Each structure stands twice: as C-alpha cells, then as structure tokens.
C-alpha cells in the first residue's frame, strides 16, 4: 500500500504507470474511496484501476489530508484480505477490505460505486483475487481480445494496454 504511485499524463488525464509484467484490466470512474492508515482517514472521489497486480485509486482532485498529499493510492492484490461486497439499503454498493503492510499493521479500505453498475467490477475483482491465490495464467489473460459488459455500467475494459508516449 502506498500513496507514492508513479503517474503520467496523457491528453490531460493522469494515469498510473504500469509496473513490470502488469496488465491493466479495467478502469472504473465515479468511485468514492476511503482508507484508514495509522488511525488517519483519507477520502476522495475518482477512478479505480484494476490490474493483474494491484488496485490503484486516482483522485479527481489532488488534496492535502492529514499532513499528506493525497492524489493516488495503490493496494497490491496479494495483501487483500477480508474483502466483502456490501449492498446497503441506503447509499452506494461498496467493496471493503483490509490489507496488511510490511510492518504487519493493517489498513482498512472501502470503494463505493457512486454511479451503480457494480457487476463488471465485482466479477473481475473476485476472479482476479481467486486467480492470485491459485496462480494466474498470464498467457490466457494476454490473449483475451473481447469483453462482455453491461451497457449501463461505466467501467472501461482494457483490450489494449495504455502506454506512456
């Protein structure tokens, strides 16, 4: 988990930079993200990127919270535990979970879907976590050239990888 996500700008849009052997799977706008790090709460609205290695939240607006610049936050998939999909009677559907840091302290996080359409994100998220536990077939992932999505879901599925120009 880190606030220090490598970013680049493409056509006025700030994107996370891919790590080695990382493939972008999905981008989901209209996410309300919050996390608790060392008893300090951070909140922002923005976009969530799902890759084969991590979840990356990019805030719509850079802000200063708890003496820290909050522009982006990454959660390695290997650190996610106690993940839970929540459907409250009132408010947005959300996914929450914990992640363990290298010092064995825990970070609690929550992604709320402000614009409905959780089906695409949730299905891919659960499949990705399951494959992380069982080992991911990267050759299969790279050969996929089609995506089936709900037309009411604002998620963007990547069939080609964004690259820094």
From TrEMBL:
Coiled coil: none annotated. One of its GO terms (molecular function) is transcription coactivator activity. SUPFAM superfamilies: PH domain-like (SSF50729). GO terms for cellular component: nucleus. It holds the Pfam family GRAM. Residues 19-124 form the GRAM domain. It comes from the Eukaryota. This is GRAM domain-containing protein. It comes from Thraustotheca clavata.
